[in-house]
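Page header: ASSEMBLY MODEL / three components / 1093 residues total.
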Amino acid sequence: MPKALVDFLTVLLNGVTLAALYFVVASGFTLIFGLMRTTNMAHGSLYMLGAYAGVSAYTATGNWLIALVAGFAVVVVVGVVIHLGLLSRMAGQDLRQALVTIGLSIIIADLLLAKYGGLTFQIEPPSVATGSVAIPFVVNGTYSAYRLFMIAVAAAVYGGLWLVLNRTRIGWYIRAGIDDRDMLSALGVNVSRVFLFVFALGAGLAGLSGVIGTTALSISPGEDGRYLLSSLVVVIVGGMGSLGGAVIGALIIGLSEQIGLFYAPTYSIFITFVIMAAVLAVRPQGLLGRPA
Amino acid sequence: MSWVRSRQGIVTIVALLILVVYPLVMPRFWVLSIGSYSIILGIAALSLVFMSGYGGMVSLAQAALAGFAAYMLALATLAPSTNATGSAIGFGLPALAGAVIAVVLTTALGALFGAISARSYGTYFLMLTLALAVGFFYIVLQNYEIFGGHIGFAGILGPTGQPRANPEVFYYICLATATAVYLGLRYIVRSQLGLTFQGVRDNPRRMAALGYRVAAHRIALFAIAGFVAGLSGVLGAWYRGNISPGIVDLSRTIDVLIIAVIGGLGYPIGAFVGAVVFVLMDVFASSISLFGFSFDERFNTLIGVGFVVIVLVAPDGLVGLANRAWQSATHRGGGRRRAVDPLAAEAGLLAAPMPATSIAPSEPAGDGTPSNK
Amino acid sequence: MFGAKTGRGLVALMFVASIAASACGGSSGGDKVIKIGGLATLSGPFAVPGQDGFRGVEQALAKYGKKLASGNWQMDGYQIQLIKEGSDATPAVALEKAKKLIEQDNVDILIGPLSGDEGLAVKDYAKTVPDKTFVNGSSAAQDTTFRDAAPNFFRFSTDGAQWMAGLGKYAFTTKGYKNVAIVAEDYSFPYTQVGGFMYEFCAAGGHVVQKNWVPLGTKDYSSVVSNLPTSGVDAIYVALGGSDAVNFFTQYNQAGGKAKFIGGSITVDQSVLSVTGSFKDQLAGTIAAGPTADSATNQEWLDYVKAYKAQFTDGLPFPGLFALSYYNETIGVLEGLKAVKGDLSNKEAAFMAALAKVSFDGPTGHVSLDANRQAISSNYVTEVQKGADGNLQNVVISKADNVDQTLGLGATSPFLAQPVSRDFPSCP
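Prediction written out in full:
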């Protein structure tokens, strides 16, 4: 097999595995926006909070799964507090909610810096996904086991969300709420409780993805802005509020970033934003989004 | 009523007098790093207030537009030289010519941003402009051939040379620019065009049905805001003497929004109030301590908490807060029946219920424009 | 209302301004007080190094004087007041804070800033304030002093290229690395480090066959790893720091890469070696260079570390590169002040003249200034080795003394004909 083709296939796999991470991060963001129309600008900070919570749990127990649960649970609790204390008081005021979450993101990031300092932390992958595995058609003939594992995690998150949305009563409420909030309320459903559930779940997914990302890469100050941006771009391209859109958006962004990094490193990050602007100029609501 | 009006006139005149006398009595640091810098940031925030107020477009691209103007100014006015990669840059034009070119190009970039985002609304628009701003940041960070990369450009000189050589003159340039922008925007919003902007903001479909080209108007609005942000960028470049990607990074981008929200997103003067408060906090945070807790290192927590509190208790910002206090103080004198500016009513853009003591949004605007409710 | 509410808005504006004006009054008199402004990074990713930098300043002050109840430091016949300001590692903020210290706080001497591009901005500003003395913090760009120097800017620490002294020769001659690929972040500090390495490595006959400049903000290095040659290179030179280094090493390790590494000055420091992760297994044998070495055994270093640990119970396990730089800069200032007995009259002319002649024995070796007021000092080549306790540590391989800014090549060397950049120097 020619080297150029092996290179290309490896870069594609790099892009797909990065897309898996981006999807998991963005899924909570798009879920919250889809139902509540809330642009949670603190999403990146919640990612970072989950990551650090996972680091603390991992340091204490040495168990990846416990770290994952800790990252999810801590951020669920914080999400509930944010929703009950702030966001539910300004329901329906999209911009004001966005502004409040900007303020929150600044506070959370600064307090995490105070607690954990500027150092870098990492979580070791679970034993099923350590080291590298031999697979054909990639550079060197080996590939990171954990990056392949991330694809499985992303698929599990997608499947889990699909089941919740399509096979449970609360999922039925959520889908109905996305279509018509007022009608759902008129039917006697406690909409504010559905909102709380969705915000807590979306926040928890941010925390969960923090642990997953910290295992694949690492966590240090500044990561919040990075994952907020990646989530924004993924859901803008894919269409806000659409789970399938988040998959497509994550694939486009993950692939373009890695292909760019390999073939045109200087402008690799910029390319991402060109793609986004191009998509929006043609389809303002994103690829799978419904018209605003 | 006439009493109120004349007193307001007096206040305005006194305030302007103080602004004019300010640089003559204050030390240089206060003239430049507080006074001039606040005005420069205020002009950038004013471009955002204008867009949000008259277009319903809350943009995060203003810092990028200002930064673009600074880069264009640097390229136009710096002496021709060779950059790191060996290509020649800099045209050595006079400062004022460079400023004109920079502002014209920034207006064009504003129009381009407008064209890209013309069909996006609300939070989509917010995020799209954020992405445009970040995209611009990555271009200037990575491009050494035109934008000088991570280091950017130094040695940018204004028409009066180093600002610190003639602080008062530089301050007056900033003050005059801000006043001109303020009056110019006021003229625009009271013109036929301004009314159309508001119509497009409030009901794009109806305006389209009436034959107005909605997208074109939104692009024009973005271009005007680009012009204003460009002026801020030119003054900022003269003030700093340099331009680098740090000036257009994510936190600077959000700073402009924070300034506008602190002052009051619905009030043009709020842009300047917010800028003064922001600059003072920024400069003196290291001197602030509460109950023995110094905010030296936790400055961002201070900013974040202050921002959340303002959004919670004063959705129309400090100016809105002062307004309400004034209203209740002059309540008896019939001061309520006062001209209502469409922008003030547009404080409802934050979708915050207007407090009873504040201006009732349902009142028709004093200059005959229809309110948005 | 663009008209109607102007009055009240302006009132609010003036109200705020008047509060602020009253809040910043003058300070009290007493013994003659010399004001020193300290500028380091206190927010963002470089907050930890910035705090350590300030520890360096205070350690030097404590060595020469006694802290008074007022917070000032009593010296022989005068007092020193230290006023600290924090930046966020961007040139714009560093410039703002430098202006605040010079113009609002009226400091006589400024010590700072921390990072390279901040240093270039402050140097440019220094030219406009010729009657104040500027002393570097830990910023290490070559051209802060090498090209277009400011006559009132002094640097008692070495630059990012000097920090590579000895490494290129060691890699080529002793380790036998002939062909090297480079992975580095895409901005001035790594350009300087890569340049310093290549001055020696290329001059010795080595080849740099591939340079990967990774954009700032990149965290997923997998496609950079895929792009590295799998054969034909003896080692990979990595100039990344902190989380970027951790990410790169992790992904290189997971992709099954086997190459040896050469590190920049912050690539394999304690902030990376103290991270728990399996990527570290591959780091044993990595050579690097820098102005400090934790495991140095000379008495000056041991005394310095002991004093650091005694003075700062909340400090780092070892004073880092940033603490040492700020420490040396402050020692330089205090020596200069001692020489003129605290006399800063005549636009600080006598002080600056004395400062240019200062030389002293610092914790890592002798420090003196060249004609551009740039330090000539010592540098270490180190190697990561597994200690008796199983932890990785940097072991000193060699130490070079009196390293000048050209690494001994001389200012007319073709390697110094251009500023370092993505493409220069080059020896493919």
